[in-house]
Amino acid sequence: MNLSFIVTLVGADRPGLVNALAECAAANGANWLDSSMAHLAGKFAGIVRLDVAEADADRLEAALRALSSTGLSLSIERGTAAAGAAGGELIRMELLAHDRPGIVRDISSVLAQHGASIERMDSACESASFSGEAMFRAELEVRVPASVSAGEVQAALESLANELMVDLKLETGA
Question: If exposure means fewest CB atoms within 10 Å of the residue's CB, which of 44, 49, 69, 164 is most exposed?
């Protein structure tokens, strides 16, 4: 049986951080499955899902923890190798708005009210191409439970989009 390790890391950005993690994973029999990493505020931050045989799990965890001596702050969580397919419908969202505090709170509140779960979210602040104004951009994948209509969630989000003056693109499909 295999286990998944969810590893979060933060450290001073420098060449070789990803390689050190990849070498550690490979040397201990782990397969690198999913990751998201970025340079944020002068730091390097990431999250990685590794898959490893149960017999190698303790050795991998010890080796990962040893990376903290290189200046990385690590958090390691064990999970199951493959979760069953979630029920419900998947909605993909693209959001673009003038940046202001509370956008993520407002969107996530609507989703929570409908029992929807954010499966993936990527966001960034960037300058508008002509005006240079700060713009907030996000891409989300949201799982809506089978007991809730995706159309209902879409309508609530579109209503919120009108209040917040955001551009919102929604795509449904399981």
Answer: 69
What is the CATH superfamily name and number for domain 2-80? ACT domain (3.30.70.260)
Per-residue pLDDT reduced to its tens digit, 74-120 = 999 998 755 555 678 888 888 888 888 898 999 999 999 999 999 99
Which fold would CATH assign to domain 89-172?
Alpha-Beta Plaits (3.30.70)
Picking from 139, 141, 138, the residue whose alpha carbon sits closest to that of residue 89 is 141
In the structure, what pLDDT confidence band is assigned to residue 156 with cuts at 50, 70 and 90?
A: confident
Would you say the C-alpha torsion 155, 156, 158, 163 has a positive or negative sign? positive
